[in-house]
Amino acid sequence: MSNSYSCVIAEENALFCQKLIKIAAQLDLFVMDTPSSGKGLIESVFKHKPDLIITDVLLKKVDGLSACKHLKEQGISIPIIIVSNSMDPAHYSGGFELESIDYINLPLSMDRFERAIGKAKKRIENQKILQTVAQKHKKMIRIKHKYRDMNIDEDEIVFIEKLEKRKYKIFLNEGIEIETSTNLEQIQVQCSEWVISPHRSFLVNLKRIKSVIPDPYIKGNYQIIYPTFNKIIPLTRRHFPLYLKLISSIF
């Protein structure tokens, strides 16, 4: 394939990391970042949103498998290729559970690595095709704004909040905010399955969620974090399974 794909390479050994960067460039991969720790890998994926993750198991502090598992629990299903010295059966099993493209032991086999990259590219292309098809079927949501009908593209909705009785605020991409008298139930019935209610006072668009963390105060609950809007939205334990099921099909 002639297209260029982005990747993050997580590797503790600086010399081997440089080798992987050179090989990646030869295989039409653009390296966005090279974290050396599992925590750095998690942060890098959220920041750069790469097409592919290439990671060692033996990273600093948090290992590569645990980092990828955390990302998967957040609903991020980016293709993963594991390249590692580790021959621990538990690590092989962990790679399988993550549905990684391949687990390649060192010394690195170029032929096997190229095949793994090829498989990853095919998976990425399939995901992009599905996203393109979805884009062609935009869903417009009709609301009341200042006593007039107004249409909003569902994909532009980040979240919607009930402010008070008969007063709601729609938060759109790029930081735009629109007040409406159309209630949450009337809006949600027009939306696709990707717009859910994590709490009775909110609707959220799963495609716009960037970060979900455990609630530090209520065990079993979670919090949806929106740094752009300086907003934290509760995700109750009752709604979390639906969130996890739907979000995993987006990434």
Structure notes:
- By secondary structure, the protein is an alpha/beta fold.
- The chain folds into 2 domains: 5-134, Response regulator (Rossmann fold, 3-Layer(aba) Sandwich), CATH 3.40.50.2300; 140-247, Beta Barrel (OB fold (Dihydrolipoamide Acetyltransferase, E2P)).
- It is 33% helix and 31% strand.
- The chain is elongated, with a radius of gyration of 21 Å.
- The relative contact order is 0.09.
- This is Response regulatory domain-containing protein.
- Residues 6-121 form the Response regulatory domain.
- Keywords: DNA-binding, Phosphoprotein, Transcription, Transcription regulation, Two-component regulatory system.
- One of its GO terms (molecular function) is transcription cis-regulatory region binding.
Quick one: overall form?
elongated
Tell me the β content: 25-35%
Radius of gyration, Cα only, in angstroms? 21 Å
CATH topology of the largest domain: Rossmann fold
Q: How many domains is the backbone divided into?
A: 2
Largest sheet: 5 strands, parallel
Mean pLDDT: 91
Task: Using the coordinates above, name the CATH class of the largest domain.
Answer: Alpha Beta
Which structural traits does this protein have?
251 residues; alpha/beta; Rossmann fold; OB fold (Dihydrolipoamide Acetyltransferase, E2P); 2 domains; 5-stranded antiparallel beta sheet; 7 helices; 15 strands
